[in-house]
Amino acid sequence: MLRALQAWGKPMRRQGWFVLLGGTMCIAFCANAQGERVTLAGLLERAQTGEPTYLAARTDVAMAKARRDQAFGALLPQIGMTGSANANDRNYRTRSPGVPTENDSYKSHATQLSLTQPIWRYANIVGYQQSRIVVEQTKYQMTGAGQVLFEKLVTAWFDVLAARDAVAFAERQAEALNFQWKAIVRGEELGENSLPQLEEARSKLEQAKSDLTTAQIELQFKRVALEQLVGPLEEFSVPYLRGTVELSDPTREKLETWLSSAETGNPALRAAQSAFEAAADEVRKQRAQHYPTLDLVASYGKNSQEVGGFPGQYGYDIKQGTVGLQLNIPIYSGGAVSAKTAEAVAQQEKARLEMDAARRTATLAVKQAWFIWQGATVRAAAGQQAIRAARSYLDQATKGANEGLFTQNEILQAEQQLRAGERDFRKARYDQVVAHIKLKAATGILTASDVAALDALMVAASSDTELGRSP
After folding, report:
1. Which pTM does this prediction carry?
2. Domain residues for 110?
3. Closest CA to 119 of 294, 336, 369, 342
């Protein structure tokens, strides 16, 4: 049985491991060797000009402004002109005996200019006020869409960085387990290891290969998520976050201060508040359908006809101008106005509940980002210490190997511990940055310059010696 496993193990080591290395080398080559350098500033520009949800929010603002202009137009004079030109053929017959029948063919012309100026139409006044509020609402929604876009972009970017680190760690893990597998196979050949040890080593190696494949797929998923925001990307090199850079500390301000800022600055909450005000105006507008309206009406017209109203009469030209007030008093509309008012009241209550929900969501977003930042800070500190301990142990193992006190396997285990510490430290730092970005987005103060400024924290290549040191 052991010889059979040996016979299987040798080609597996030659072929399976080369397949594994082929996949990892492709990822490394595509991501670093051939790829161009991509910056957050460049990705942000692409997202702002191509992300559909954000562009749709900008379109909503344009639509709301057009509706505001329509509502304002209802307050202005309505002027119209009509004209007609007719060819007439008239047959005139009286009932008196002996009077002949008359036939006339003639032309007639008529033009009229009319003007209506609303003096009191309360529904139109409220409608215009409502349209202005809706414009403010859509502006808040566009601001909120921008905040969400910035937040999603930063999150997706650092997800790609974290996935890249996970692939690098999985590669090191697979290398170490492959070395252990070779050592155990060699020991079995010398009669020092048993079949269970060989099977266990093979199982660990297969699991490491599976973990590496999973990490590579996860990296592709994260890249796809980034492309959802910025569009298709060519192969690019993924930068590294500087290990010793000092990150801003949002906890210098109290949590209550951030919550207060969210109450006054969260775009989604402000949009919901505007929606509630617009819903209240809708109730007033529907109730105004019961109110009387008063308009100033004026007209000026001219009628021309080649002949008179009866045969033998001369034609005429009539010019007439009128001006006056027109009062309209609604009496009964079949209950339609009352039903529309009831619907508007229900919509107002819905808007109030949505405003409360937006306030709770904003509060939750602030608290989540606040506590995530605190947790990430603790994990970053733990990662720093883990890196120092692993580096110290690795130095000791490397020196001890020359004296026969440590084995190569122990050195590999120390390297694994170091790479795991580096991965965890980097992930914690990413979470710190993303949490701070989300905190700003929840309070409505995140700007494009905040996102672009993160490029200053990046370097093209990792300096592992920086990791574990205090900023």
Report:
1. 0.81
2. 76-89+102-120+292-329
3. 294
pLDDT in tens, 275-286: 999 999 999 999
Q: Are residues 230 and 336 in the same domain?
A: yes
Residue type, 20: L
Quote the CA–CA distance of 231 and 141 in Å, as a whole number.
Answer: 23
Q: Which residues of 417-443 are buried (b: 16+ CB within 10 A; e: fewer)?
A: bbbbbbbbbbbbbbbbbbbbbbbbbbb
- Summarised one tens digit per residue, pLDDT across range 266-310 is 999 999 999 999 999 999 999 999 999 999 999 999 999 988 877
Report residue 428 CA to chain centroid gap. 24
Assess whether 299 and 368 both reside in one domain: no
- Counting the structural domains of the chain, the total is 2
Q: What gap in Å lies between CA 322 and CA 19, rounded to an integer?
A: 94
**Could you give the angle at the alpha carbon of 135 between the alpha carbons of 134 and 139, nearest 5°?**
115
CA neighbours closer than 13 Å in the CB half-sphere of residue 120: 11
CA distance 409 to 438: 43
CA distances from 351 to 132, 201, 221, 359, 362 (A): 17, 62, 37, 12, 16
Q: Which amino acid does the sequence have at 463?
A: S
